[in-house]
Amino acid sequence: MQLYNKLSAKERAELIEKAGKDRMTISFYKYANIGNPEILRNHLFINWDKLEVLGRIYVSYEGINAQLSVPAENFNAFKTHLDTITFLENVRLNVAIEQDNMSFLKLKVKVRDKIVADGLNDDSFDVTEKGVHVGAEKFNELLDDQNTILVDMRNHYESEIGHFQGAITPDVDTFRESLPIIEEDLSDHKEDKNLVMYCTGGIRCEKASAYFKHKGFKKVYQLEGGIINYARQVEAQNLENKFIGKNFVFDHRRGERISEDIIANCHQCGNPCDTHVNCANEACHLLFIQCESCAEKMDECCSYECKEVHSLPLEKQKELRKGKEVSNKIFKKGRSEVLKYKK
After folding, report:
1. Residue percentage of the chain with pLDDT more than 70
2. Could you tell me if 327 and 286 are in contact, meaning their C-beta atoms sit under 8 angstroms apart?
């Protein structure tokens, strides 16, 4: 039985283009006690592969975290299948603001120790004692309250291109780094301030809110459904949009525009820009912000050194990469001395 992808990303992209059918980009998560993640992983792959679902899904003993795309014509069948899984029945689905048929090109369902790498010992506190979930209208009211401290639970490269007005945006590379920093910086306000948090779709705040309540914060709130759900509610309810810029997303799109503001800059020339790219040199693959002009000048690379490597024949590039660590262990996203205008 096939439990892996047989098509390359290129082959899948060609099939999607040839089919000419609209696809929906969706994300969801759910914390739940799962006895055997491997069995669930195989069950999901078998059933979703039949529905032409593509995406990145993590399953663990603590639940599921999924970002995926599905043909629009198969959405109802996909939702029906979700509802057959007890803990996923009527789970909230965050549908992307901006759709892209190529957002995902492979189906990857992986078993992980955790659905979000938080570095926490879950046995040390009650993860079900979460903060208060609030929708867009209540969230806006909280932001207008002078007793509110708003915290962005995402990483530096996410908040750099878009965030809520007045938010604290920790300069961190990972979610796990932000937790102790926020606790220490806000330790004087555990009793008197509203601690309001947000992230992309809500999953990081789900764990963070329980952690901060465990650490003694009394008034903890989290944005229900994250930025994605907020943007939809703002439009549907004709509310004031307090988010400026783009919402970073972890798929081929890399971002979806929430407001017309461009609050970031090209990391190579400094001009206004909020388009994330990966360095075209596969041995680097650094995530950074690059404008169209610099992309043309630098052959979509982050440095002249990478540009030189990228210009070599493909076989020569592969030869140079042999025996080296994977790029994610070499570079931190958006951080490199070659990026002159990285804030």
Report:
1. 96
2. yes
DSSP string across 131-168:
-EEE-HHHHHHHHT-TTEEEEE-S-HHHHTTEEETT-B
Compute the average pLDDT of residues 114-125: 85
Specify the amino acid at residue 253: R
- CB 27 within 8 Å of CB 229: no
Catalytic entry in 199, 279, 291, 301: 199
DSSP label of 62: T
Alpha helices (H) along the chain: 9-19, 37-50, 75-84, 136-143, 156-159, 175-185, 203-214, 226-237, 292-297, 304-310, 314-321, 327-330
Q: Is 139:164 a contact under the CB 8 Å cutoff? A: no
What is the Cα–Cα distance from 173 to 343, expressed in whole angstroms? 14
Q: In the predicted model, is pLDDT for residue 329 greater than 80?
A: no
pLDDT greater than 70 at residue 182: yes
What mean pLDDT do residues 204-215 have? 93
Q: How far is CA 199 from CA 207, 248, 341, in A?
A: 11, 10, 25
199 in active site: yes
CA torsion sign for 55, 24, 9, 313 is: negative
- Enter the pTM of the model: 0.88
Are residues 54 and 106 in contact, defined by beta-carbon separation less than 8 angstroms? Answer: yes
